[in-house]
């Protein structure tokens, strides 16, 4: 028996290795397609990973539903991209296809020190191993950084009901709604991200960035002068200064700026880009306009957790072309909140749904997409049609 044990061990190892290679080379989503190495997990693979995690008794997993967060739950299962070196060897040199793996994020709330841990599960579609993924340097995930669960929403709602109980009649008199005994007229709350873990973490200031012309001496010819455009940054210390009137030209960039800087030494900001602005419907000082004086206060807007009040809308005057169907091209309403020096690079480079159209000297354009060829086209071949009615006639 002692001599047969090593042979048996080698046989088991060989079977597992062949099984791993077979699964890595014959995944249903990667047959006949090099782009399939980047394919997302299929429904069958997701179910297989979930079943494998639940079979591991050492994880002590429990369903995410419930009234407590003191338990271990699976938060996310997604595709774990293989190492770049392995992918290049497969794509450029025809070497073995990298094994497909999944990333599983588990919330360990039942431990003495709750934590968030990432695991690699593979090989797919029949996983049999689990390994811990080390966090990236400087990106250690804290327990308080996780999204709020349904159990915490219930507790938060209960806390709000108790805290606002003395204001029950006040809410009814001012809004007609309340948190207690409200039946169909109940106040609701909205949890807004990003969340701060300590006082002052979300501190920002408001400033504008525009262009102005300056008359300077020509550095190459001091006896002459030249006019050149330059950027002008303006900070606002009070709310009234940052209130822009209807119909006035807005500064080019409206920025909410953090004191923190990015890798290039620029303050991390978000750019408020307004697509449309509604006309003023009430004259200043009118009786209804005075009802919301909180919107025109002169509180200081120095670095703190700022809130932006953005007025958007459009004026549509009915005309004969609105019959029988009102066309709405150009009647868009809204605004964008875009990063401005917030990231160190374009965040779309990490997109998994990228489509690039390359022009050719002859023939049609070349469409490059990172999806399996057997997955179908990235658009529907059937043209869209609409006859202007709510229901087909």
UniProtKB/TrEMBL annotation:
Co-factor(s): Cu cation
Cofactor stoichiometry and binding remark: Contains 1 topaquinone per subunit.
Keywords tagged on the record: Copper, Metal-binding, Oxidoreductase, Signal, TPQ
Biological process, per Gene Ontology: amine metabolic process; response to antibiotic
Residues annotated as signal peptide: 1-24
Copper amine oxidase N2-terminal domain: residues covered: 44-129
Gene Ontology, cellular component aspect: plasma membrane
UniProt domain Copper amine oxidase N3-terminal: residue ranges: 146-207
GO molecular function: copper ion binding; diamine oxidase activity; primary methylamine oxidase activity; quinone binding
Modification after translation: Topaquinone (TPQ) is generated by copper-dependent autoxidation of a specific tyrosyl residue.
Copper amine oxidase catalytic domain span: 298-348
Alphabetized PROSITE patterns for the sequence: COPPER_AMINE_OXID_2
EC number: 1.4.3.-
Family, similarity comment: Belongs to the copper/topaquinone oxidase family.
Name used for this protein in its record: Amine oxidase
Organism: Myotis davidii (David's myotis)
